[in-house]
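Lab meeting, item 3. Inverse folding demo.
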């Protein structure tokens, strides 16, 4: 099963990473800095970045990036060095990212929510020589003695103790010219680590360039587009789907420090947002906590989302509130540098339960447990190949061998593909519940429950049962008007009786997530099993 053929004239077969024969865009930037310089050349006076009171044109951003790159080089940082970026959604993140790439170094963006043990592991594992960080995370930084490879500390908010002021790194001179091979690593992104230590996916220049171009072509983006970065810039979505995609489109990235529904809509109105990519729960929060009629969102053209299909109720409400908005589902991961599938424009309503079609340069196999391809319409594991698939994990040959096979990334996601080439995501392999011999895809049950208008988000886990093997336990965050009977009755109308949830817990706070935003189902399983079954209902995690 391959990607779309309507762009065949733009693509051709090439060999990457020594042995991978993949479909690539023929006319593509040589590397990420070439992609950025193309935007500077084509749109020098166009806004590249808006962050609070900071506004930078592409020409301004080029100057700032060059000055910081010169500063890095002056302190001996050079090609291949790892520069860790522990910065929130602000201008300094993008300037640091581009300056790092400009000297041929490797950027290591880290989520600002990470705690000390994970920070220590990531910084030591990648061998970071330099750390740029926001002041509010300083109390969570590991001790210098625990980071023997880290030579330089810079704070974006000024100097303190032995930490230097980030602003002293800018030198008004041209940085050295550095030759970059597109197969070299540009960014290391550490995966969520829901089980065990996080893995450092090596995103190369050619990976990111292809993913950005996939978004640009599939969403028909250009210099007039303005995208709000409402998810963390350190996550593959914010980094690639927003920032690098806007650079590839020569458009503007607008930073939102932290997502709040009203703040997002105010910013979208003021900055004439045309594009974003957020999760379905964020759309639901906008309806729950704000009135769309209070804002002028007439320029909002593309509403991207990922993580799950959009509930039908939300799609209907968005169509009514924003008739000019095109909803675009996308499915991907860090290992495939964001998108593996994107919904073709205009098909979202007709295929609202699909994650779209394979990206133009991608290739997806759907296989059984033995690695054999399954028939069309049959569920199996997604194996994904293409120029956007990373070559492996940093300093982790064992995990690379486990996760990749002959150029394919073994996703662990269970899904299917129909005769028209639309892909459907059913569940994570490890999250499927087997109740009395019946397979229950938790994602299917979650999507049905999410259709209820008062549900903001939900998660389903299995819990042991002596008779049936497992039963389903649903955790729901939403309006206090919800009732268990209403949830069960809704499920009974749409699902087989064995899929109706056995246990339901209403939460008073959002679902527990790790620093990269993934729901911590292991924590929910522990919560579900913590008390006798008769006492579980109504319990909320602390």
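The presenter then showed the designed sequence:
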């Amino acid at each position: 099963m391959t990607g779309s053929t309507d762009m065949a004239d733009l693509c051709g077969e090439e060999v990457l990473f020594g042995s991978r024969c993949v479909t690539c865009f023929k006319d593509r930037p040589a590397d990420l800095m070439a992609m950025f310089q193309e935007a500077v050349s084509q749109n020098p006076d166009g806004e590249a970045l808006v962050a609070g009171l900071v506004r930078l044109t592409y020409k301004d951003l080029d100057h700032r990036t060059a000055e910081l790159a010169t500063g890095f080089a002056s302190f001996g940082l050079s090609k291949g060095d790892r520069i860790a970026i522990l910065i929130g959604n602000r201008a300094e993140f993008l300037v640091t990212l581009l300056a790092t790439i400009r000297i041929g170094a490797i950027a290591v963006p880290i989520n600002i929510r990470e705690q000390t043990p994970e920070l220590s592991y990531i910084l030591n594992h990648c061998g970071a020589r330099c750390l740029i960080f926001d002041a509010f995370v300083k109390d969570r930084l590991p001790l210098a003695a625990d980071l023997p490879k880290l030579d330089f500390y810079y704070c974006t908010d000024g100097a303190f103790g032995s930490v230097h002021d980030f602003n002293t790194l800018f030198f008004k001179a041209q940085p050295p010219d550095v030759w970059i091979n597109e197969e070299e690593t540009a960014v290391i992104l550490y995966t969520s680590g829901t089980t065990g230590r996080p893995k450092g996916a090596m995103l190369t220049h050619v990976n990111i360039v292809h993913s950005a171009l996939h978004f640009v072509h599939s969403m028909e983006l250009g210099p007039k587009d303005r995208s709000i970065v409402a998810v963390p810039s350190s996550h593959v979505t914010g980094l690639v789907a927003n920032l690098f995609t806007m650079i590839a489109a020569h458009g503007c990235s607008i930073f939102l420090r932290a997502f709040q529904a009203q703040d997002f809509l105010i910013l979208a109105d003021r900055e004439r947002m045309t594009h974003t990519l957020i999760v379905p729960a964020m759309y639901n929060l906008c309806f729950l906590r704000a009135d769309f009629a209070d804002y002028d969102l007439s320029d909002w053209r593309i509403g991207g989302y990922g993580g799950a299909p959009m509930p039908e109720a939300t799609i209907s409400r968005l169509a009514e509130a924003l008739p000019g908005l095109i909803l675009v589902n996308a499915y991907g991961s860090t290992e495939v540098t964001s998108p593996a599938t994107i919904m073709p424009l205009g098909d979202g309503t007709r295929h609202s339960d699909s994650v779209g079609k394979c990206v133009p340069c991608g290739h997806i196999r759907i296989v059984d447990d033995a690695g054999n391809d399954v028939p069309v319409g049959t569920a199996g594991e997604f194996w994904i190949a293409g120029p956007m698939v990373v070559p492996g994990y940093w300093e982790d040959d064992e995990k690379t061998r486990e996760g990749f096979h002959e150029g394919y990334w073994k996703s662990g996601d269970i899904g299917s593909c129909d005769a028209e080439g639309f892909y459907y995501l059913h569940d994570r392999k490890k999250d499927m519940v087997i109740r009395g011999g019946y397979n229950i895809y938790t994602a299917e049950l979650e999507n049905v429950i999410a259709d209820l208008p008062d549900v903001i988000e939900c998660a389903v886990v299995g819990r042991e049962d002596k008779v049936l093997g497992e039963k389903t336990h649903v955790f729901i965050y939403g309006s206090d008007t919800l009732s268990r009977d209403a949830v069960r009755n809704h499920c009974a109308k749409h699902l087989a009786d064995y899929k109706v949830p056995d246990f339901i817990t209403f939460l008073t706070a959002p679902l527990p997530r790790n620093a990269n935003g993934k729901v911590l189902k292991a924590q929910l399983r522990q919560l579900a099993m913590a008390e006798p079954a008769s006492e579980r209902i109504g319990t909320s995690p602390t």
